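ugh ok so i messed up the first submission bc i forgot one of the chains. this is the corrected input, ALL of the components this time, i swear. 923 residues overall. if the numbers dont match what u have on ur side tell me asap before i send this to the collaborators (the ones from the other lab, u know who)
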Amino acid sequence: MSAAKTLNLTLKIWRQKNGNAKGSLETYPLNDISPDSSFLEMLDILNGGLIEKGESPVTFDHDCREGICGSCSLYINGEPHGPAKLVTTCQLHMRSFQDGETIYIEPFRAKAFPVIKDLMVDRSAFDRIQHAGGYISVNTSGNTQDANSIPINKENADEAFYSAACIGCGACVAACKNASASLFVAAKVSQYALLPQGQVEAKDRVLNMVKQAEKEGFGPCSNTGACEVECPKGISIENIARMNREFLSAAISK
Amino acid sequence: MSQLDSKIPEGPLKDKWTNYKNNINLVNPANKRNIDVIVIGTGLAGGSAAATLAELGYNVKAFCYQDSPRRAHSIAAQGGINAAKNYQGDGDSTHRLFYDTIKGGDYRSREANVYRLAEVSTNIIDQCVAQGVPFARDYGGLLDNRSFGGVLVSRTFYAKGQTGQQLLLGAYSAMNRQIAKGKIQMYNRHEMLDVVIVGGKARGIIARDLVTGEIERHSAHAVVIGSGGYGNVFFLSTNAMGSNVTAAWKAHKKGAHFANPCYTQIHPTCIPVHGTQQSKLTLMSESLRNDGRIWVPKKLEDADAVRKGTLKAIDIKEEDRDYYLERRYPSFGNLVPRDVASRAAKERCDAGYGVVANDTNEGVFLDFASAIQRYGKEEVLVKGISNASKEEVTSLGAKVIENKYGNLFDMYKQITDDNPYKTPMRIYPAVHYTMGGLWVDYNLMTNVEGMYAIGEANFSDHGANRLGASALMQGLADGYFVLPYTIGDYLANDIRTGKISTDSPEFAIAEKKAKDEIAHLINNNGTKTVDYFHKRLGLIMWNKVGMARTTEGLNEAISEIATLRDEFYKDVRVPGGADELNQELEKAGRVADFLELGELFARDALEREESCGGHFREEYKTEDGEALRRDDEFTHVSAWEYTGKPSDAVLHKENLEFENVELKTRSYK
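and heres the new structure output, hopefully the right one now
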């Protein structure tokens, strides 16, 4: 908790009144920001000032501010969730920036993520991909078998966990030049593919989820690996390889 | 004042739930298709309820203010979920989980509810594994457990420090299956603004589409509120920015009693406040207390030097450290319940031993050095390394710690810029969870017919203090395994009712009221932001209704909050319009409700002239500073009825009968 010198910044922020309006980058000077403030607290300060001046505050998605809900987005200086690795925008702190710096803040851009307002985009396409197969068809009656009746080797359980750690923020899509949702889809496919409980519906799941992603307008995998680099949860592109194997074997056997 | 009927079934404790289930009314599958249920909130309680009710055949309409149900704040729960599986063979049982929860809640919860919770806890784990929740496992492939505060067994199941995320994604996946089938209609980015009562029964809601601003009417045969807790009344808390009391408060204003609002959990291990621009606080999971030791310097001058930055924690000698929890509570040590640990931290900081240089010097150390050494030595033996160097031991030990808590350590480093593998974490208590909430009976129904409250939104299971890893358990128990039975018993009378019309005067009046309130806020032309008022409310709450409460402070808080509320309505500025996406308007509505709740909260704290669990009155403590309960006068639930304004709320009581446990002074010494 350093008491370092404060930062004076120039912000270039994407403003767009609604989905149909034309947007543009607007310039906002902002001074005396503590390096211990989070990026979103910096935007709170900007918004407080705008409201007091009678101007319209900047709209952006955020909620838990702990890096887990996946609400926050933002394309900061050309990177989803900004320059720091393995963090979401809400966990990004101003000590990652220099005094006097100009910061570009834009929404996540993808055809399948239309802008709602300013920096807020519509990511409901991700939900619809999950509706297409992101579940195991078991009723929640509680009358299943004992949780320890099927041992799962630790390695697979851990792998499944790392895949399941996806927060559905959409950074992978924003980072990809094809706006592909491959990493997102692959993470869910992998989680279930690695667990015995997920095997029963594995084939339909991968086929349906991939199909839905295409239908939503996400592009094909670009194979550049940008998604892995920008993923705040460090989801590996090995998941995409696993998804491709699952897809291929399902497509052949169907 | 009246006595409330909790409708606890007759019979011995362990048979109540079974007998109850055997004797309730059921709705046949064909009739379920004609019955609609509204669920507010999609966290562990709301999400699991929506999925299960839809599986059973009801038509569910689910609402959340987030852009996806997966983002509800249950997602942020870190440490784990309790269940009486006794996989470790360490003496756990349904009865022991029940007893620990009753004792942990300082004997202020309802026996029958808590026993039912312990009873269904084991189903939750079975269910979640079947859904593909990747819990931590040991090398034999079986489920692993850890310990949490206030208990002497290992019954907590976990998925690293992201248990809430994994459980919520499980519930979300169950919802997705039903959304795909059309059995759940999902309303994302919608906020409930009122509940509509027709003929004395909850029959629908008024909601605002947060994207278009449109005010909508939705009808149903029952309304389930699973909208979480109200910790954000303190402005700074570990809750999500959008977490709010609005749904529960509107329900209260429509007749539902609000129970024990003063029972708030101040969690001992959070990252301390860094400055006045801070927007929220971050929890460091209680699971860290399995391995972390809490201490402050023994000498005032050392604490002072640490704050000034001239002395480092690692340079303070062992004999100059005060491991105050181990000193005061030798049998539970660092794993005392949360309320006890929080008060002990406050006591040390008030005495001048705090180690963080903020306005109030509030902070203590959470130190992993000895755990790193302990694990390092174990690893050296396991790996058969001879003559291991000190560095090697430390590095191997740090690896073990990383495996257990890696994501938490990363998060800490990201926020504070300190490396917790090398230097102790600095932590301080912060508002985390609210045990109070809408009063419900054994059926989880409020006193308004057809209106249910589940999860953190109700008051029922945690008494005056919640034990760690019990919130996830309660949310899922309510949603998966309790409400689906109890609501059926009620809805069995509704099979001939038919669709509820939204054209009734009741809907029209509620809609007009919601629109008028929005118009008032939008057209107010004040000068101050919503946050300005919210922060001021938070300061009053933290200073006067926080960890230590006095008659004088509470009286001041009550009048200050009422004054602040008047000021808010005169001077708040909400930019933008009603018919568009307007985040300031959303916040303004929520803060308006917090400004009413805050006053009732302080009144409840004033009325309860004892100390119990998270509620600590300076006037009622033992000689060594522990909470002093007054069972003869306060073994009851305080349920408040709204009659026009918070200051006029009428108190009702539900006496708590303890037939199966003996009321004792809680001791963790």
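quick check: DSSP finds eight helices and seven strands in chain A. that seems consistent at least. Chain A has a mean pLDDT of 96.
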